[in-house]
Amino acid sequence: MTLSTFTNRAILTSIISVLGWVTPAQAAILNGGFSNGLSQWETTGDVSIFQGQALLTNASSTLEDDFPEPAGKFNFSSTEVSYIGDLETFVGVNPFDLGEYATEGSALKQTFTAQAGDILSLNWKFLTNEETPDVFGTNDAAFVILKNLDSAISTVIGLGDTNGVFGSPSTNLDFLAETGMNIFKSQPLAAGNYLLGFAIVDDFDTSVTSALLVGDVKLQSDITRTVPEPAMTLSLGAAFGLLVLQKLQQRQKGYF
Fold this sequence. Notes:
Helices cover about 20% and strands about 35% of the residues. By secondary structure, the protein is an alpha+beta fold.
């Protein structure tokens, strides 16, 4: 091996090494826009797709939850809702984390890997046939769950409930009340593996339906981590500089 060949390889190795240091790892929520239905997601209970969003309800498929409406009118998947104990296990939370008097509901989940500083964002809407605001102690509620699988620590965050701010219904799902479309953003995440879950639960009773619409679920990466550190930038510049200098020397000696 000639000195020139050895030098070229050394320089290229340096460049590749530096590039390897600054290339960020990829992390994403798969099918977060639900363009492929519920692909990449696991579900329990009544979960379906409505206008490019996931729709979760706490409606039975066989009982008259919203009398005088017929049984199953607000169950859109024909799948029976899950009992609260099964629901808590499904999304990896402790008993009563989804409400002290929660009875049943539905959920959706996916696992993902986050880089330090990633932020989870999503759109959501809460829909209900319950009284708003709640006056009977039947405060149905919707949650987002973030469980760090490395530390086994779960964070349960309430999205909407029957004491929220409601306006005139804007969907054709026939619920009596709906919130507007809201945006949720998490705090910056620690690097690690996570379970992401969404849940809607009945509170106190098992009648009268509420629902959660979720869409545009994604990770917003911390863009600062993709910028090379000054030392890395200098190393990369030096490597390119050496390569250019050697090519000039070869040309002066008549090598091509």
